[in-house]
């Protein structure tokens, strides 16, 4: 095996790790983790000094770092927040004229009960997400389908689990069409992306299949015992809004426009990859179109009064969004410091990415045993994914797997695929409440990100365990 760089862990690294463990314990006991996260940022600020500062200067600096970390977190999350706010504002405008009822009416023929709703959501989100990534997919598809699923008896949490595991779990971790994740991992591991792709698809379906099976069992059990039930919004079929004169036009036109956007993204992704619309560009296109539709719908229904009424729709969107994201920003402020890019932004040049360094240290002590390597990469993947991105750690993990395999191409490919799937499932994501994916899926579904993560934890960890065993077998 090739020599791997040894990482020296400082008191800051150990403090970061201790804070992470404390946060996990708090989550296990269903306690809030905002205060531990804030204390963690302050502690890192105190420990990051050069040793020549006075106590007063250290306190001042750590206080400034706290605000900088909160600001960095807010900036990093704002594009997701803005997209959700605009989509909810657009829906508020459509609901005001009853267009939303007409828009979702055809889906009632497919979604006839909670089970069909769950799997319809999963399949639709998966297909949409593989072509233009899950965050635009959930805003585009989830906004229309989740209300229908809730109306036919699927609890909001069940809908959130369905779209989260299928979209930000299975689709994003395999990334079979866009292959952004695959290219990042393969380039770092110095392997062919075509060799990596079959394994990432296999591991994503293994992890996702196990997680969805267990989640379905738990959801049906809780529904049967009365612990979980659907709670349709007040604007359900029994109390529909009076239809405006343009309700039919928008009820038909909005889905057609959104489907045209999907078609354009798919077409460019397959036939014109150099001009493909994906990731941030897809989010921007969707957000811009939603804003235009918001203006058109409001003016069509309200006339000249729309100049004033649109303010209420925008308030509705942002109130909904802030309610979901407000608790996430201080938590993300701490975990983002595990990523070198965020750490440098907040604490200055020369600052380490604490999670990434801890991951390197773990793998530096792994031996040549296949089982130990697979378990070590799996643990590192979870740790690196805690930054809430999933993608930022792929270059690190690709480099680690290439070094661990010691020139064995098969083992490099298997370990790289395992690392990619686990890291993105964790941080892309399904297991951290501050991840963009969890925030987006929970926000559109109207549930708490922390509650969604708790619901996902055991099923996804069971999926990781199964996939790690499969990787060990494939390396034997």
The averaged pLDDT comes out at 84
Radius of gyration: 23 Å
Please state the structural category.
mainly alpha
Number of helices: 20
Distance between the termini: 16 Å
Question: Strand fraction band?
Answer: under 5%
The percent range for helix content is over 70%
* Number of DSSP-assigned strands: 0
Report the sheet with the most strands, covering strand number, pairing sense and barrel closure. none
How would you describe the shape? globular
H-E order:
HHHHHHHHHHHHHHHHHHHH
Low-confidence stretches: 233-239
Q: Would you write up a description of this structure?
A:
With 476 residues, this protein is mainly alpha-helical. It has 20 helices and no strands. Helix 5 packs parallel to helix 7, helix 6 runs antiparallel to helix 7 and helix 10 packs antiparallel against helix 11. The longest helix is centred in the first third of the chain and has 42 residues.
């Amino acid at each position: 095996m090739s020599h791997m760089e040894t990482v020296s862990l400082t008191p800051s690294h150990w403090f970061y790790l201790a804070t992470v463990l404390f946060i996990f314990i708090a989550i296990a006991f269903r306690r809030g983790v905002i205060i531990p996260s804030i204390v963690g940022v302050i502690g890192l600020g105190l420990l990051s000094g050069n040793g020549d500062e006075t106590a007063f200067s250290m306190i001042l600096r750590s206080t400034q770092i706290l605000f900088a970390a909160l600001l960095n977190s807010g900036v990093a999350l704002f594009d997701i927040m803005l997209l959700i706010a605009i989509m909810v504002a657009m829906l508020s405008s459509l609901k005001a004229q009853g267009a939303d009822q007409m828009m979702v009416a055809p889906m009632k023929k497919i979604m006839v009960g909670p089970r069909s709703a769950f799997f319809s959501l999963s399949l639709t989100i998966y297909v949409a997400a593989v072509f233009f990534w899950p965050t635009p997919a959930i805003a585009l598809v989830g906004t229309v389908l989740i209300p229908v699923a809730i109306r036919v008896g699927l609890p909001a949490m069940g809908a959130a689990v369905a779209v989260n595991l299928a979209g930000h779990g299975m689709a994003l971790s395999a990334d079979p069409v866009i292959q952004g994740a695959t290219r990042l991992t393969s380039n770092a591991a110095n392997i062919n992306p075509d060799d990596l792709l079959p394994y990432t698809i296999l591991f994503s379906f293994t992890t996702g299949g196990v997680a969805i099976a267990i989640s379905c069992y738990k959801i049906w059990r809780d529904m049967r015992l009365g612990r979980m039930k659907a709670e349709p919004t007040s604007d359900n079929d029994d109390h529909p809004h009076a239809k405006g004169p343009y309700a039919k036009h928008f009820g038909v036109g909005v889905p057609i426009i959104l489907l045209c956007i999907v078609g354009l993204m798919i077409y460019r992704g397959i036939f014109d990859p150099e001009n493909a619309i994906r990731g941030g560009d897809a989010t921007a296109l969707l957000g811009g179109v939603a804003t235009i539709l918001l203006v058109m719908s409001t003016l069509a229904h309200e006339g000249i009064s729309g100049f004033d009424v649109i303010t209420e729709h925008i308030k509705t969107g942002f109130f909904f969004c802030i309610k979901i994201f407000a608790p996430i920003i201080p938590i993300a402020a701490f975990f983002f410091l595990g990523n070198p890019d965020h750490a440098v932004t907040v604490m200055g040049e020369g600052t380490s990415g604490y999670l990434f360094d801890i991951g390197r240290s773990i793998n530096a002590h792994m031996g040549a045993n296949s089982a130990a390597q697979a378990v070590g990469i799996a643990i590192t993947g979870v740790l690196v994914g805690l930054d809430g991105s999933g993608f930022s750690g792929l270059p690190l993990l690709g480099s680690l797997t290439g070094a661990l395999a010691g020139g064995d191409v098969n083992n490099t490919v298997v370990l790289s695929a395992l690392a990619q799937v686990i890291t993105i499932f964790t941080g892309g994501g399904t297991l951290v409440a501050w991840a963009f994916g969890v925030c987006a899926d929970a926000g559109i579904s109207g549930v708490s990100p922390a509650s969604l993560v708790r619901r996902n934890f055991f099923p996804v960890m069971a999926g990781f365990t199964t996939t790690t065993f499969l990787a060990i077998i494939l390396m034997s």
